[in-house]
Amino acid sequence: MNQIIVKFSKTILVKSGVDVYNMSWTPGNSFAVLESIMILSVVACDLDVYLVHRNGDRTLLCMVTCPSIHMAEQVYNQEPHGPGSCDLTRSTLSFVRTIDLQFVHRKASRIKTQSNLSILWDEININFETFLFWSIPGKTSCSSSMKDNNYSCISNHSQCMVPPYLPGYVCRCSRGFEGNPYLLDGCSPDIDNGYSPRPRKENCSGRCGTINVEFPFGLEEACSARKSFQLKCSSHSTKPPILRLNPAIEVTYINVSDGLLGIKYDSTLGGMFINSHVNSVGTPSESQEPKLYVDPLESASVRWAVANLTCQDARDNTSGYACVSTDSSCPGVISSIEGYVGYRCVCLPGFEGNPYIPDGCIDIDDCAQTPGLCKGICQNTIGNYSCTKCPDHTEYDITKMQCTPKAKQNLFLGIIIGLSTGFGLLLLSLSAVLLVRRWKRDAEKKLRRKYFRMNQGLLLEQLISSDENASEKTKIFSLEELSKATNNFDTARILGHGGHGTVYKGILSNQHVVAIKKSKFVRKGEISDFVNEVAILSQINHRNIVKLFGCCLETEVPLLVYDFISNGSLFDVLHPADSSNIVLACELHQKLQVLCIISTLRHQYQSSIGM
User: How many domains does the chain have?
Assistant: First the structure.
């Protein structure tokens, strides 16, 4: 790749009264700095180190703290990069043209004491190491750069590429070639013979913790197909084993059939460079192996190839061909950035397993794994399946996804349909009954309201409300109250019959016994007089006159409610013998007496209310 590693040191003198110090570094117009692998070492005391961005925002990189002068000097003399220094590696993918750092003294914790080691107190010593990516300045596209006389990709089998982080272009060798594309004949054929289709060691360990390590990967030397596939299982007494690709990258799973490797980066070591090894000081170093991992840019998984060869070239080299399983094939692995990476192996459709070992691809029972493939009988074949129709007298049941007898199925469907229909009819009938009952109740309420208005109920309410005595003694009963009091006008409650109606015995909700007169008819013209007389009669309180409590106007003919006399009628008291003439005379005499009293009281009542 077009990259170089740069290292430099700088010392900033600490001035009295100054707490903020800045450092800026720009490598040049043709270079970009990768912040992802920026290793910074700051030797000082009581400093906050910030990375300043182009928009003015700051990111705290580290804090350098010295708890005491004596301890800081003692530790520094033993280990210059111990306490009193700041070491870090940023892992964020970011290319910048300038690095701006800011160092801020913390006043609250700064120690003002004489020190024999002035390097910690009078200076800020900075050691900086990072990657520089470069490009050839010029045109912004490869097509225009190729027309330039100073076009740099002069080697045969070289090609131009525009990097995303710098203006200009870079050169690289074409697929299947390696070398220096900036020299004549610098790109030579790249024959990758590093893959070994069989482990050279027997009884290789194949598990690290919960992860299966399948070939072509391995945990020991001579157990993997190539050096870049050798993993390390680091076990600790207090932690579960950790599988690593290199010290900077942890492997979380291996999927051989799909060609995927689950990874997790260690940000302190710059794990982005998955195709590189990491040396003892944490700096990535290029491996002699070809770059077979597709750089995921900090993704959770990476794709990989087994060799940097085309499938055709790999098949021609039969001794090193990786796809050794009979039912396997060879697809290519292509990166959107780097182009063709190499090839890998995969089991043919209808097979699964490990294509990198002999007979590793095993036939899949498609019928068992995917029910419902056939609308009939499914039969598995080697690498495939076949479908046949259901036998006679059977048909395919989509709910059970199998062939079932027609009669049994029809009976089952018939039961379901019958139950559903019966339940539906029952629900419909109940709904109809409820609707009819509700309609009847509403009709009865409307009819009662009609009779109440027709029988001058509003006038009676007005008369009652305008007279305090009337409101205390007169009550307008509802039809529901009187029906409940007479057990729905039960014939057993009848006290007697007359020419104008029937009298029922009733018990009100307050347990008061009353006589309810239900007349047969009433003249429409007499309704107003009837209402006035009810208001007057309800006020009469005489020992020889039956007490009138009120009336009900919610029927076509109003109902009158009297006090109940338990000793019989006036005729029963005066004349125990039966005589129709005496009865008629008594009734006539009683009626005349009552009418006289009514007329007198009515005249007085109308005069009092101004009628």
Answer: 5
Please state, in angstroms and as integers, the Cα–Cα distance from residue 93 to each residue in 96, 265, 296, following that order: 10, 12, 11
Residue 201 lies in a domain: no
What CATH number is attached to the domain comprising 11?
2.60.120
95 domain residue, yes or no: yes
For residue 100, the enclosing domain spans 3-134
Domain termination residue (choose one: 134, 167, 198) = 134
Annotated binding-site positions for ATP? 524
Q: Please check whether residues 511 and 589 belong to one and the same domain.
A: yes
**Cα-based angle 26, 30, 34 (whole degrees, multiple of 5):** 60
**Binding site: residue ranges?**
524
At 315, which helix (H) or strand (E)? helix 311-316
pTM of the model: 0.44
Distance CA 159, CA 174 (A): 6
Residue 202 lies in a domain: no
Position 11 in a domain: yes
What CA–CA distance (Å, rounded) separates 451 from 556? Answer: 6
Q: Tell me the pLDDT tens digit for each residue of 512-545.
A: 888 988 887 666 666 666 777 776 776 777 776 7
462-501: pLDDT as tens digits? 777 776 655 456 788 888 888 898 998 888 888 887 667 8
What are the residues whose beta carbons fall under 8 Å from the beta carbon of 4, sequence distance 6 or more? Answer: 131, 132, 134
State yes or no: cis peptide before 216, omega within 30 of 0.
yes
